[in-house]
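Support case: user asked for a sample of complex input and structure output to validate their parser. Sending the pair below.
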Amino acid sequence: MSDAPVFRVDHVSFGYNGRTVLKDISFDVQQGEFVGVIGPNGSGKSTLIKLLVGLIKPKTGSIEVFGRSLADFKDWQRIGYVSQRATHFDIGFPATVWEVVSLGRVSRVGLLRQPRKLDRDAIAKALEDTGMSDMQTRLIGNLSGGQQQRVFIARALAQKPEVLVLDEPTIGVDPEAHQSFFDLMRDLHDRKNLTIVLISHEVDVVLTEVTKLLCINQDLIFAGTPRQCLTDNCLVHLYGEGYHVAAHSHPWNHK
Amino acid sequence: MVIGLVAPMIGMFLVLRRFAIFADALGHAALMGVALGVLLGISPVLAALVVCMGVAFVVERLRAHRRLPSEATLALFLSGSLAIAIVIISLTQGFSVNIMGYLFGSITTVQSSDLWVIVGLGVIAILVIVGLFKELFYISFDEESARVSGLPIRYINLILVGLAALTVALAMRIVGILLVGALMVIPVLSAFQIARSFTGALKLAVAFSLVSVLTGLVSSYYLDVAAGGAIVVVALFFFLISLAFKRS
């Protein structure tokens, strides 16, 4: 594995219809980091994620993925992506959990080829990692929002990525399942050494879970550890003067 | 029977994309092609195929670039193609029996040489769908994630719409332009009511389609009714039955 950062964003700007969405953003994501991206609605978070995974191209500046420019990077199987729209499917559509997760192997299997045992093993492992093994024959439309989200994460994991990129993964998920989701992310980060980049509106949870925080509001307001963010009062700069933070450290995890 | 196999296989992915009316739009484009063929004195089936392919690719490009909402794009081509076809037909001095045969199907006019072309192209279509099945499933289910994973989205989408156009052109002599879309969609909708997996839905859709085609053709012979109408009526019957057995 090379030492190149997973993502290097260098003076990137993006806009459309004359409107600036992101302005001169620069940051790195190193391998093994757990990055949370926060910001108010319309701040450009989802746009940033789409730039990272190559869905859109920056107007100015450059992005490198594993040391290669977006135009030259071809190894997209290394990036597992869970879009914000992943759960926007017709719930009446008959697809089993196994069939949806198996889609994560499509790019690994290759065109005109059939899945082999190692592909089926990867699917089974992804289901096991997300606690969805018992649900593999269930129809995805019959699952709860939290379970569906785990299925889409399993689909991304089945690809055996080195990076997970998630765009607001807890939208539509019951609040009770949010902590369970972040427990899963922490487990994947710690156990599999996955690099994770996720957008979330749950600032309180993100601050305690991630190793690096990016605060976006067209500009990059802050990039650093959650502790630095609290020290620098960056959340007030991000969300406005009315935003108050009450924080205390936990003796058992020193966060 | 080849049409009975191919139509629902294509229809699965159109319905999954919420693009079910695409088949009807292609049917109307095929009518425009037939009318052009009659006007220019060339094979109506070949003209229909060329026009269908052209419309299919244009619709796909407009959809991919989001220049128009998908439904609006289809409505544009559906009504626009029909309007152009009517103008051309009136220029060729009114409706003729030939046109009616394409509108409602006329299996008795299909010659043995046509059959070999239909079977040959149908087999090619089936092989392509089977070969690209998992890619078509992924793109139809979640195009954005499929794109990020590195799949050649643009080319696979063009292959799918091209196959849809081919299916419409092949099927219009048997089912008729006005009902070819129904054969691509109704068996799929029936399957969706009772299937417990995507592959299960595909098998059921094909089964419903094959039985509809066979029963419809036999019925049309003995009852002396249009084959296309009889086929779709049987397909509708299966849909009603599937609603009764809809999975909870």
